[in-house]
Write a structure and sequence with these properties.
By secondary structure, the protein is mainly beta. It has seven domains: 2-70, no CATH class; 91-316, Galactose-binding domain-like (Jelly Rolls, Sandwich); 329-403, no CATH class; 407-481, Immunoglobulin-like; 497-564, Sandwich (Immunoglobulin-like), CATH 2.60.40.10; 577-644, Immunoglobulin-like (Sandwich); 647-711, no CATH class. β3 (109-110) and β4 (118-120) form a beta hairpin. The longest helix has 23 residues, at 48-70. An eight-stranded antiparallel β-sheet has the order 3-4-6-8-20-10-18-14, with no helix packed on it. The chain has five helices and 52 strands.
């Protein structure tokens, strides 16, 4: 008996597992074989002949496994995050992951796009017996084993979520794969399949026409037979045991387009197909006399769909599947202690321990973490079930913990002119999940935001804060948009003015051609100055000085110029006068001390009146009445007084007379009807003469000759 064990170690120490399982997992219906050791007796429930035969089978199997193992690196061989089909794992099946190395030669082609792996039509597998034209792919859609599928089928199939990598494709009737595996009678095993069914699509021509769904009617069977006894699960599943997806769950057609197709197009120019992978397991018992079982998959007749198979595993019960890790990746915003076991949602099989390692090679125990470990991201960890008694493991499940690389940066354009709104922010976001939302706020006078947009324009000066979220983490940016100082524009101060004054000059600051004046009474001079004429204006008049600098920035200032209405002055009307008349009074309107008279012959009285003496004057004499009101506004009026020179009159000389003489004639010069005589004893004749009768008179008698000329 110990010779058998030694022989097992010589082939590969991992096959010790299979032999120990014999003792651990079955104890009914067989005789016992007894061996000796340093520790005592070893009792096994099988006959020595049976053990010899089973050992020979294991030895043969080990040789085949060792050949496979030697063809790959140790790390690759035990990368159970992708496959668990090598000696040392509790999985007995080989080539269950359908990797490229499992294909026996042939011509591999590059999938559509040049970035989606390889494929081969009508392959032969090294460790599977197959019927028909079974294909292999790392993503390329294949139908009817078309060799140039990458030219006529622009479709890429999403790899399985459990096993990943390559997979087998069945696209015709009566296609099958099968593998016979050695088992121990009366031992419970679990076989698992990753499987998916998708529609059959038509080819796409060079004009990107065609590619529609031809048919979608699954017809398939898969399971375990030839030695398997049902425990509870059926030994054979059909398409009816899968989730029933409708054709509408898949892309309507294949296309070389870079967008559209209901969102199923990849920018690289192919259609992305989600096959809805499923993991179906069958727990069964090896028959009482069974030394092998056959795992199989086959399509029926007709086969009217495309079927995908990956990740076949046959293991001791409870070790066919890796631990269920949900999610398989998680992003943290900052380093945070994490309990790895919290990601595992499946139940640990009897006799097993949930373990974690940082090494995809599960056999490197030095990299195993303590039970129920707590780690701080980032890091990559592998969860697996380990049976210390059997010394084997389940497949592993990879958990990737990362620290978010979400980051943001920005460029900005400040406001060009004071109080303007042409500021902008160009926000750049990298890393993270790739799907971002934006929440903007403004303060310190900022306005013009689109609060959920990535980039901003039409902004005023102020402070802007944006929180960028990728659904997991956030990053914050604070951006200050500045503006230049306001241009210092000064219109100046003017007035008050009277509407009667001469135009004045308005001068703005800065004073150059960038300035323009406007307003009532304003004539712009084009050099920063203007002429303001108050004539006809009244009250407060607003004039504006607008200035634009070389950057196109503007400002303005106003000046309010008070314009008072000048008073109305009236000098009145006088004359004509003779130069020998008494002085007359001149009266101006308004009549008060604010009025002043001036002119030849005028004596101002200080109360709005004046005395005009025509003596010694002749002709038209202009006198002026000037009036200044309480606003210091003045006005004046003139009056022209015609002064005529009085005529020269001569009454002549008479007497002395006696009172008894006859009346005498008085003759005045000039002598005409304009002359009139008057006095005692005088009788006017109306022609410049008069009769003077001295009778009854005595002494000096004065007689007067008055003459009025044509003036």
């Amino acid at each position: 008996m110990f010779k058998i064990i030694t022989k097992l170690f010589a082939s590969d120490r991992r096959f010790l597992i299979g032999l120990i399982l014999i003792g651990c997992l079955s104890s009914q219906g067989y005789s016992q074989a007894i061996g000796s050791s340093d520790e005592g007796k070893v009792i096994l429930p099988y006959s020595q002949a049976y053990l010899d035969q089973y050992n020979a089978d294991l030895d043969k199997k080990a040789a085949a496994h060792n050949a496979t193992f030697r063809s790959r690196s140790k790390a690759q061989a035990f990368n159970n995050a992708q496959k668990g089909d090598f000696v040392g794992a509790c999985n007995l099946i080989t080539c269950g992951s359908f990797e490229k190395a499992d294909v026996a030669g042939g011509t591999f082609r590059t999938a559509v796009g040049g970035t989606n792996g390889q494929y081969q039509a009508d392959v032969k597998y090294t460790c599977w017996n197959d019927d028909g034209t079974v294909d292999w792919s790392e993503g390329q859609y294949i139908s009817y084993s078309t060799t140039n599928s990458n030219s006529v089928y622009p479709g890429i199939i999403e790899p399985s979520t459990f096993d990943g990598g390559g997979f087998a494709i069945f696209s015709f009737q009566n296609e099958a794969i099968r593998q016979t595996l050695s088992v121990i009678p009366n031992t419970v095993y679990t076989v698992c399949f990753e499987i998916a069914v998708i529609p059959r699509y038509n080819t796409v021509n060079s004009n990107n026409q065609g590619g529609a769904v031809i048919e979608y009617a699954p017809n398939l069977q898969f399971g375990v037979r030839n030695g398997a006894v049902q425990v509870s699960d059926p030994l054979t599943y059909t398409h009816n045991d899968l989730v029933q997806h409708q054709a509408s769950d898949f892309p309507t057609r294949l296309s070389f387009a870079t967008s559209g197709n209901n969102g199923d197009q990849n920018p690289g120019g192919w259609t992305e197909i989600n096959p809805y992978w499923e993991n179906r397991c069958i727990t069964f018992k090896a028959g009482p006399n069974a030394t092998s079982v056959e795992v199989f998959y086959k399509t029926g007749n007709p086969g009217r769909s495309v079927v995908l198979v990956d990740g076949l595993r046959l293991s001791v019960e409870g070790y066919a599947n890796s631990p269920t890790v949900e999610p398989t990746s998680k992003v943290y915003c900052e380093p945070t202690p994490v309990a790895l076991n919290s990601f595992v949602t499946s139940t640990t099989p009897p006799g097993a321990v949930l373990k974690w390692t940082t090494n995809p090679d599960l056999s490197v125990t030095a990299d195993h973490l303590p039970n129920n470990p707590t780690v701080t991201p980032p890091g990559v960890y592998y969860a697996f079930y380990y049976n210390p008694t059997l010394g084997c493991t389940s497949p592993s499940r990879k958990l990737t913990l990362t620290i978010s690389d979400l980051d943001s940066s920005f460029t900005k354009v400040n406001v060009t002119c004071f109080d303007g709104n042409n500021g902008s922010i160009d926000l750049s976001v990298t890393g993270g999940s790739g799907s971002y939302t934006y929440a903007w706020t403004a303060s310190n006078g900022g306005s013009g935001l689109n609060p959920t947009a990535q980039d901003q324009s039409g902004l005023t000066a102020g402070t802007y804060n944006v929180t960028v979220s990728d659904g997991i983490c956030t990053t914050l940016e604070t951006i200050i948009i500045t503006q230049p100082n306001q241009i210092n524009v000064d219109a100046g101060n003017y007035g008050p003015l009277c509407d009667s004054v001469s135009p004045i000059t308005l001068t703005g600051t800065p004073t150059n051609s960038g300035g323009t004046w406007s307003g009532p009474g304003v004539t712009d001079n084009g050099n920063g100055t203007a002429t303001f004429n108050p004539s006809g204006l009244f009250g407060s008049n607003t004039v504006t000085y607008s200035y634009t600098n070389s950057n196109g920035c503007s400002n303005s200032d106003t000046a309010n110029i008070i314009v008072y209405k000048s008073p109305t002055a009236d000098a009145g009307n006088y004359g004509p006068l003779c130069d020998n008349v008494s002085p007359i009074t001149l009266t101006g309107t308004p009549t008060n001390s604010n009025g002043t008279w001036s002119g030849t012959g005028v004596t101002n009285n200080g109360d709005g009146t004046a005395t005009f003496n025509p003596a010694g004057l002749s002709g038209s004499i202009t006198v002026t009445y000037s009036y200044t009101d309480g606003n210091s506004c003045s006005n004046s009026d003139t009056a022209n007084i015609l002064v005529n020179t009085a005529p020269t009159v001569d009454a002549g000389n008479y007497g002395p007379l006696c009172d008894n003489v006859s009346p005498i004639t008085l003759t005045g010069t000039p002598t005409n009807s304009n002359g009139t005589w008057s006095g005692t004893g005088v009788t006017n004749n109306g022609d410049g003469t008069a009769t003077f009768n001295p009778a009854g008179l005595s002494g000096s008698i004065t007689v007067t000759y008055s003459y009025t000329d044509g003036n």
